[in-house]
Each structure stands twice: as C-alpha cells, then as structure tokens.
Specification:
This protein is mostly beta strands. It contains two helices and twelve strands; from the N terminus they run ββββββββααββββ.
Length: 199
Amino acid sequence: MRTPCLAFAALLAGALLAGDARAQDAPIDAPDLVNRVDRDTVDYQDDRVHVVAKHYYFQGAHDPRWLLIDVAVEVTSGDALTIARDDISIVLPDGVELRLTSQREYRRARAELLPMRLALHMHLDTVRDHFPAGSCGDHNFRFFVDSGIRQTLVDASPVFGECLRGDLFFASPTGAWNSGTHTLVIGGDTNVRLPIEIQ
C-alpha cells in the first residue's frame, strides 16, 4: 500500500535467484519527482526526503564489473528514518535485483576500485553541491570501510539539518554492466527508486 508522503513506495515482487540476485518487476513510480541533473546524476525530492545519486562507471578505466554510486539522503520533514545496508539494491534492465557487494569482496578489490574512488573524491561536481553549504560534506555513513568499523545501518533526522552521504559498491555477476536504465532502490523507511543510466 502506498503512503501519501512516499512517492516512490513500490511493492517488490519476484522470487529469489542465485546468490544475491532477485527478480524484480516493479516500475519506477512518479518520474516527475526525479530531476536528471546530468548524464550521471539524479536528484529526487518529495515532501519528506531529498536524495541525490551520482554514479561512476568508466568503460576501460577500471575493472568493468564494478559500479560505484555516491548517494546522499536528507530528511526534510517528519520523523527520523533509518537506512540499513540490506535496504539498498540495484535493479538491472532485465529485472534482476542485486544487493550491495560484501565487505569482504570490496576489500579484495580495493586496487581495482582505486580509479573510481579517486574520480569520486576529485570530481568538481559532487552530490554535496545539491544541498545547503556545509550540510553534506564528508562521507558520514560507512557501509564499506578500508579499516575501522563498518556500519550496517544509519539514522537521519530533520532536526540536525545534515544529510547522510556514502559510497555504494555493486559488482556485476556477468563481469560488466550493460547499457540501459538501472534502478537504485533505497528501501526501509524511504523506499525511494532512482533511475541510473549507464551508457
């Protein structure tokens, strides 16, 4: 059932496939709430949350099985929300849903991921530019870590006026990402669905 304040609430349907992949046939709802800022960036805002996602995928510049998405979420009204690591996935153009890669696989691939991470941290146009100055600086949720403690969930509240920002890593089961519209799903208390165009 859809709630009035969540324009992207959708029923996820499908059976469990091999590994972390699941079938998915729910469409992207309310595309008018999504603003495509540029080829790699989408901005979504409803009466409760503001979400910006920028993806990094460079053919030939890194291991082609990896997709990195820099995402930021700000709660603009209502109650605080919680986003768990398991709430995040990406739906491929053929409907298969993939979970975030594991921490173990991420650590094994750190060398292959370096070009993407450098591009993210050196890029002039980042997701923080779409929020009030100073509210969304460093990556303040850590679902992937090189050292230290990895988080499995994060909380956001409209009281503090800060956004949650972090890196999301996905590994293609086929070794590369096909062109087309992928859908970033942020479930849990938000259930936002964002189109990610890979060319």
